[in-house]
Amino acid sequence: MDTDKVIQRRTTGGVWLILMAAVLWGTTGTSQALAPAGASPMTIGALRLAAGGGTLLAVALARGGLRGGGRWPLVATLCAGGFVAAYQLTFFAAVKATGVAVGTMVAIGSSPMIAGVLAFFFRGERPGRRWVAATVLAIAGCTLLVMAGGGGISVTPLGVLLALGAGGSYAAYTLAIKTLLDGRSPDAVMAVVFCVGALILSPLLAGADIAWLAAPRGALVILHLGVIATAAAYLLFARGLETVPVASAVTLSLAEPLTAAILGVVVVGERLTPTALCGIILLFGGLALLAVGKGRK
Question: What InterPro entries is this protein classified in (predicted)?
Answer without folding.
Answer: AA-Vitamin_Transporters, EamA_dom, EmrE-like
